[in-house]
């Protein structure tokens, strides 16, 4: 599966394979740092996928280790299996995207937070909370605020929860990623207020928007549901989503009986705050947005499932156990059906981008070169070109700038099915490949001015 649109933006920041793509206001520098050990010297997508797959597994393992002593090992093991078997986890774990890493950071941070609450002298847990917060902040600073808001409220507002060392460590962790984002705001985006406003605009304007139905529609593999229209998915594909709050409630009841109320309630509250902006504040959906909430819910849900199949003293309940196993089998079947279809569809679209890039090279659009128009950002990465837009969320140049570039470098405008070329490219020779029309700037001007 070739690199997706957002992946090409992140990877291009550190890869010598293509010029860095426009880095829009909401993005943060965590993913480029994450992929740099591979991307700075290799353009192999396979190698990058393997690296990220292994790293994502190690990250999940370490995050679950933070919960040892708070829950039995069987609970954390089942929690890890539940989270890792979601199609959205499997799909995004090996990708150069930030949301999975916010989820891992959130899981580790909350676990370490609870360990320090129980043992203020646990220095390893203090460091773990700081690192988890920093990981989230480098990936998505705004998500970090939503995840850690209940933790900071407890540390500052509740006397019994005050742990100055932990508060300082988490504040430093948040400051590393968020601070870099703020510095970049003043260096490249005209200030913090301007960057926040631009980030809101790119996301369609933040405000009261009930996106619960959008998230439901995205659960069948719509990686970006914008606009999010159409019929609701089949109940079998979304049943697990409605089961989550029920099982979380059972997990909380079980925890109260087992003396684990606090370690269960805290991740539930953090999961709720992590989900708020993506359920109620934006007007579209992507299933990856809720990965942090799913990771935090996995612990109480696993506790609930184990309590349903085990009676007092640990004896198995055959009937309930059989029902839970059948439910999980059906759940996994639905997850892997969605995963297979999503991968097949995504791979086909990325293959079309690769074919388009190959056709551009055949037409003489080779590095150094510039692409503009529909899907210019990902196809430019595939072709080794720079990308430019004169309008929209990725605007980074002007019409005159593109025409000046065309006088000295190969330039092409891409037009997706149903679209039209920019005004300045209408007279350029057109070619068709993979559903795209490629309007390639004529070479006469370059022949006169030289390369």
Q: Would you give an account of this structure?
A:
By secondary structure, the protein is mostly helical. The protein is built from 18 helices and 5 strands. It has helices at 5-12, 30-39, 45-65, 73-84, 87-92, 99-118, 123-139, 141-157, 164-188, 192-202, 212-218, 235-258, 261-280, 291-309, 318-362, 376-383, 399-406, 444-449, and strands at 370-373, 386-388, 411-415, 430-433, 436-440. Strands 2-1-3-5-4 form a 5-stranded mixed β-sheet. Helix 8 (141-157) packs antiparallel against helix 9.
Keywords:
single chain, 451 residues, mainly alpha, 5-stranded mixed β-sheet, 18 helices, 5% strand, globular, disordered C terminus
Compact summary:
With 451 residues, this protein is mainly alpha-helical. It is built from 18 helices and 5 strands. It has a 5-stranded mixed β-sheet.
Along the chain, the helix and strand elements come as: HHHHHHHHHHHHHHHEHEHEEEH
- Give the helix/strand class: mainly alpha
Question: How many beta-strand segments?
Answer: 5
| Binned strand content | under 5%
Q: What is the alpha-carbon Rg in Å?
A: 24 Å
Topology:
Blueprint (H helix, E strand, L loop, with lengths): L4 H8 L17 H10 L5 H21 L7 H12 L2 H6 L6 H20 L4 H17 L1 H17 L6 H25 L3 H11 L9 H7 L16 H24 L2 H20 L10 H19 L8 H45 L7 E4 L2 H8 L2 E3 L10 H8 L4 E5 L14 E4 L2 E5 L3 H6 L2
Parallel strand pairs: 1-2, 1-3
Antiparallel strand pairs: 3-5, 4-5
Helix pairs in contact: 1-16, 3-4, 3-6, 4-14, 6-7, 6-8, 6-13, 6-14, 7-8, 7-9, 8-9, 8-13, 9-10, 12-13, 12-14, 12-15, 13-14, 15-16
């Amino acid at each position: 599966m070739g690199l997706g649109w957002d992946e090409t933006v992140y990877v291009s920041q550190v890869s010598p394979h293509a010029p860095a793509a426009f880095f829009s206001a909401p993005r943060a520098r965590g993913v480029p740092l994450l992929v740099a050990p591979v991307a700075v010297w290799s353009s192999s997508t396979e190698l990058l996928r393997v690296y990220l797959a292994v790293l994502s597994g190690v990250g999940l393992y370490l995050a679950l280790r933070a919960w040892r002593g708070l829950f039995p090992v069987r609970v954390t093991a089942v929690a890890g299996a539940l989270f890792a078997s979601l199609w959205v986890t499997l799909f995004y774990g090996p990708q150069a995207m930030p949301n999975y890493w916010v989820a891992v950071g959130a899981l580790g941070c909350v676990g370490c937070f609870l360990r320090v609450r129980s043992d203020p002298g646990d220095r390893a847990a203090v460091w773990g909370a700081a690192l988890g917060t920093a990981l989230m902040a480098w990936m998505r600073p705004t998500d970090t605020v939503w995840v850690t808001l209940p933790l900071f409220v407890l540390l500052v507002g509740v006397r019994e929860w005050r742990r100055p060392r932990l508060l300082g460590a988490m504040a430093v962790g948040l400051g590393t990623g968020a601070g870099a984002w703020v510095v970049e705001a003043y260096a490249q985006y005209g200030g913090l207020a301007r960057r926040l406003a631009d980030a809101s605009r790119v996301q369609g304007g933040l405000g009261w928007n009930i996106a619960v139905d959008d998230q439901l529609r995205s659960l069948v593999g719509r990686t970006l549901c914008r606009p999010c229209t159409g019929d609701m998915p089949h109940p079998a594909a979304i049943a697990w989503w409605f089961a989550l709050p029920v099982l979380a409630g059972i997990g909380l009841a079980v925890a109260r009986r087992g003396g684990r109320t606090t370690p269960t309630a805290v991740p539930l509250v953090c999961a709720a705050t992590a989900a708020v902006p993506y359920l109620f504040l934006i007007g579209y959906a992507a299933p990856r947005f809720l990965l942090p909430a799913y990771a935090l819910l996995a612990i109480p849900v696993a506790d609930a499932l184990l309590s349903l199949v085990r009676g007092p003293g640990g004896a198995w309940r055959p009937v309930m156990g059989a029902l839970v196993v059948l439910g999980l089998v059906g759940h996994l079947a639905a997850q892997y059906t969605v995963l297979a279809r999503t991968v097949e569809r995504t791979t086909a679209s990325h293959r079309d981008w690769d074919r388009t890039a190959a056709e551009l090279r055949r037409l003489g659009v080779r590095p150094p070169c510039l692409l503009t128009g529909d899907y210019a950002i990902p196809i430019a990465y595939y072709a080794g070109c720079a990308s430019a837009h004169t309008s929209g969320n990725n605007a980074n140049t002007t019409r005159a700038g593109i025409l000046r570039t065309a006088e000295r470098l190969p330039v092409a405008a891409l037009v997706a099915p149903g679209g039209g070329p920019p005004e300045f490219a209408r007279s350029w020779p057109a070619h068709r490949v993979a559903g795209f029309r490629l309007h390639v700037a004529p070479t006469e001007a370059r022949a006169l001015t030289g390369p």
